[in-house]
Amino acid sequence: MTILLALLAFVCGSLVVAAAAKMFAPSGANSLERRLGEVTGTRPMPDAESESPYKGIVDTLKRVGAAAPRSSSEMSKLRKKLVAAGFRGPEAITVFFGVRLAVAVLFFIVAVSPLFPTTGVAVGLGAAGVGYLLSSMALGRLAKRRQHRIRLALPDALDLLVVSVEAGLGLDQAIVRVAEELAFAHSDLADELRLVNLELRAGTGRVDALKNLANRTDVDDVSSLVAMLVQTDKFGTSVAQSLRVHSDTVRTKRRQRAEEAAAKTGVKMVFPLVFCIFPAIWVVTIGPAAMKFVDVLFPMFQK
Q1: What is the pLDDT of residues 169-225, one digit of tens each?
Q2: Is the model's pTM score more than 0.90?
Q3: What are the phi and psi torsion angles at 95 (to 5°)?
Q4: What gap in Å lies between CA 27 and CA 10, rounded to an integer?
Q5: CA separation for the pair 173, 152 (Å, rounded)
Q6: Measured distance CA(79)–CA(89) in Å, rounded
Q7: Residue 164: pLDDT above 80?
Q8: pLDDT score recorded for residue 280
Q9: Phi, psi of 183 (to 5 degrees)
Q10: How far, rounded to the nearest angstrom, does the alpha carbon of residue 105 sit from its chain's CA centroid?
C-alpha cells in the first residue's frame, strides 16, 4: 500500500510539472513572430487574451460560475468585496463563483480519496463546505490587505496633492499628477486615482467621481478625504489649506494605529509563548528532574 501511494504521488507530481511546463512555455509561432519582430524592427502588438496562459482556465471557471446558483443579496455583497479587492471586471463575480465551486469539488475529491484513513461522503461534504467558505475568506483577506495598502499610501498622496495644488495646478490635474507619481510605490491608490480621472474625462461630476472613489475603496480615511473635498468645493474654501490640515490628521491617525499595534504585541505574544515556547522550556528544565524522580520513586513503590 505504501509503494502504491508513493507511485501515485510521483505520477501526480509529474503530471502537475508537465502541465505547468506546457502552460508557461511559449508556443513556436509566438516565439518566431517575436524573433522576426526583433530582426525587422516591427513588433506586433501583443494580444492579452490570446497570449494569456490562463485563458482556458478562466473560460472554464466562467462556464462553471455561470451555472452556479446565486442570490441577489449575495451578488451585491460579493461585487462590493470584489471591487474592494481590486477585481473590477464585469465577469469577476462569475469567475469567483467558478473558483468557489472548483475549490469545493477539489476538497470533496481529496477528502473521499484513499489517501486519508477516514473517508466517507459525510467527511467529503464537510470538506467541500470548508473549501466553499475558504474562498470567501480568502477574498475578504485580499480586500482587507488592499485597503490597508491604500490606507498607508494616503498620507504620501495627500502631501503630493498639497504640493501640486500650491504649485498652481487644479484639483483634477493634481489628481492626475499624483496618480503618475504614485504608480511605482503605491500602485493600488494610483489605479483608483486614475479611475477618478477617467470618470472626470467621461463627463462625471467631480463630486460623483469622488464619492465613487470612496465607495470602491471602502476605506474610512478615503471617505473622510472625499467628504472634506466635497465640503471644500461646496463652500469655496482653500483646497490647499484643507488638504494640509487633513494630511496632518491622517498622519496622526497612522501614528496612533502604529502605537496601538505595538501595544497589542505583548498580548499577541502570550499565545505562542504558552503553546510553543513554554512547553519546550518546561521539558528542558523540568524533564531531567522528572526523570530522576521517576528513577528514584518507582523502585520504592515497587517494594
Answers
A1: 888 889 889 988 888 888 888 999 999 999 988 888 888 998 998 888 888 888 988
A2: no
A3: -65, -40
A4: 27
A5: 23
A6: 10
A7: yes
A8: 83
A9: -60, -35
A10: 23
Annotate 25-53 with b (16+ C-beta within 10 A) or e (fewer): eeeeeeeeeeeeeeeeeeeeeeeeeeeee
Exposure string for 199-211, b = 16+ CB within 10 A, e = fewer: bbeeeeebeebbb
Residue 159 CB-density burial (10 A; 0-12 exposed, 13-18 middle, 19+ buried): middle
pLDDT value, residue 17: 53
| Residue 275 main-chain phi, psi, to 5 deg | -95, -20
- Domain boundaries, given as residue ranges, for the chain: 147-259
Taking only the tens place, the pLDDT of each residue in 17-72 is: 555 555 444 444 445 555 545 444 444 444 444 445 566 766 666 666 666 666 77
- CA-based nearest residue to 104, from 134, 140, 78, 74: 134
Instruction: Give CA–CA dist 272/280, Å, rounded.
Output: 12
The Cβ-side half-sphere exposure at 239, using a 13 Å CA radius, reads: 21
Alpha helices in the chain (DSSP H): 2-24, 28-40, 48-51, 55-66, 72-85, 92-112, 121-166, 171-181, 187-201, 206-217, 220-235, 239-268, 270-272, 278-302
